[in-house]
Design goal:
alpha/beta, Alkaline Phosphatase, subunit A, Gyrase A, domain 2, 2 domains, eight-stranded mixed β-sheet, four-stranded antiparallel β-sheet, binds zinc ion
Length: 426
């Protein structure tokens, strides 16, 4: 696929930012550049993947594929025929990102789940979870320049546990360096595709969603400041491109207030569907050989099939019976008189592709306020920790300039971004 030599395509990601927040900030003056783009362009609510987490959502965004095709179902997975945890990275992505198939120079900055960085025609700086700077930058000759900018791969979230002021300071420094990096590469490379993702938004909302909702909150202004700063960069970028160019802004999932973390494995333990070998720590590697099912983050339920796992118990012939039992259990779960689970999907309902065998047997989407977790050692069935915000599946946003509303449709999904961008190339 070839882009006209005089055309540029720019994709800006705002990790986790919900549609309603963009709408509100564009109306109340916090994001005036966003407001201008909304009035000139196409602004839609969009849908994340299921589950609605960044590793899966960005993998679907950059490939245009279903998790069953690209093979990324979460931040964690299991090694084949084992209960041993692995952390899939960019090398585990089974489909090529679209920029590899576009015959042009690209600059890719901070896309989650693209670590370690790959050599491409252009520049690739990987995003969350990037561990080592030496494996995060391609070409590596750029590393000294990034170091001079005080470039940071990610916000140091551990600071929030120490002091929110330290966290906010780190968040702002990370954003400033990201902006310096974009300006430098924008000016110094002859790119045609530019992709930049801001991930501090997601971290900020996990810790301080309550500061967004409460106008009297100590950190309310700091919260808005982060969005103002991003808005001014968006204004700068939209000034820098011409009418022939394409600009797409998007989030990979939405956000809302978190009331309770809910521990789904705890529920399975209480119902005698999950247990551990005597005396062993409650962990996946120690599950006993009469376990029926277990959960991985955030709400991925796996049946302990005898032909799939070393201490498997369930016969394939009992699949329908077990699925229906689990569906009943999860759909009945209530906390403070509210149903915890909104939707339950079997693998055939939402996944397709070559890697569907690795997909969870059931995937759960929570109702408002409930954050699903797979932790085994828990204070009970639910609790409230340091986080005040959580992801949502169906309130992400998409905002486009230079793309027809027909190409975008009424209810775009993150996996449509590829075809939406490609509709402007042909
Ligand atoms: Zn997040």
């Amino acid at each position: 696929m070839k882009i006209d030599t005089d055309k540029k395509i720019v994709l800006i990601g705002l990790d986790g930012v919900p549609y309603n927040m963009i709408e509100e900030f564009s109306q109340d003056g916090t994001m005036p550049n966003m407001a201008k783009l909304i009035s000139d362009g196409v602004f839609r609510k969009s849908e994340s993947t299921i589950p609605e987490i960044s590793s899966v959502a960005w993998s679907s965004t950059i490939t245009g594929k279903n998790p069953g095709e690209h093979g990324i179902f979460g931040f964690t997975d299991l090694h084949k025929n084992s209960y041993q945890l692995k952390f899939p990275n960019f090398n585990d992505l089974k489909e090529e990102p679209f920029w590899q198939q576009w015959d042009c120079e690209s600059v890719i900055i901070n896309v989650p789940s693209t670590y370690p960085s790959h050599e491409i025609n252009g520049v690739h700086i990987s995003g969350f979870v990037s561990i080592d700077i030496n494996k995060s930058v391609s070409p590596s000759s750029l590393i000294p320049t990034l170091m001079d900018m005080d470039y940071r791969l990610d916000v140091d979230s551990s600071k929030a546990h120490e002091s929110m002021d330290l966290f906010l300071e780190d968040l702002d420094k990370t954003l400033s360096a990201r902006i310096d990096c974009y300006r430098y590469l924008w000016a110094n490379r002859s790119w045609q595709f530019f992709m930049l993702v801001f991930t501090g938004t997601d971290r900020l909302m996990h810790f301080l969603y309550e500061a967004y909702e409460d106008k009297n909150h100590k950190y309310h202004d700091k919260f808005l400041e982060h969005f103002r700063k991003i808005d001014s960069v968006i204004g700068e970028i939209s000034e820098r491109i011409s009418d022939k160019d394409t600009l797409l802004l998007m989030s990979d999932h939405g956000f809302e207030r978190l009331d309770y973390d809910v521990y789904l494995n705890r529920l399975l333990i209480d119902e005698n569907l999950l247990s551990f070998t005597a005396g062993a720590n409650p962990s996946l590697e120690n599950i006993s050989n009469d376990t029926i099912a277990f959960v991985m983050d955030p709400g991925r339920v796996y049946i302990n099939y005898s032909d799939k796992y070393p201490r498997g118990y369930v016969d394939r012939g009992d699949k329908d019976k077990i699925i229906s039992k689990l569906k009943t259990l999860f759909s009945k779960l209530k906390i403070s008189n509210k149903n915890v689970i909104r939707d339950i999907y079997t693998k055939d309902e939402i996944f397709f592709g070559k890697y569907i065998d690795d997909a969870p047997d059931l995937t759960l989407v929570a109702n408002e306020g409930f954050n699903l977790k797979a932790m085994m050692k828990t204070p009970g069935l639910y609790s409230k920790g340091i986080f005040t915000g959580k992801h949502t599946q169906d309130t992400a946003f998409l905002l486009a300039k230079g793309i027809s509303s027909d190409a975008i449709g009424e209810k775009p999904k993150v996996s449509d971004v590829r075809s939406i961008l490609e509709s402007t190339i042909k």
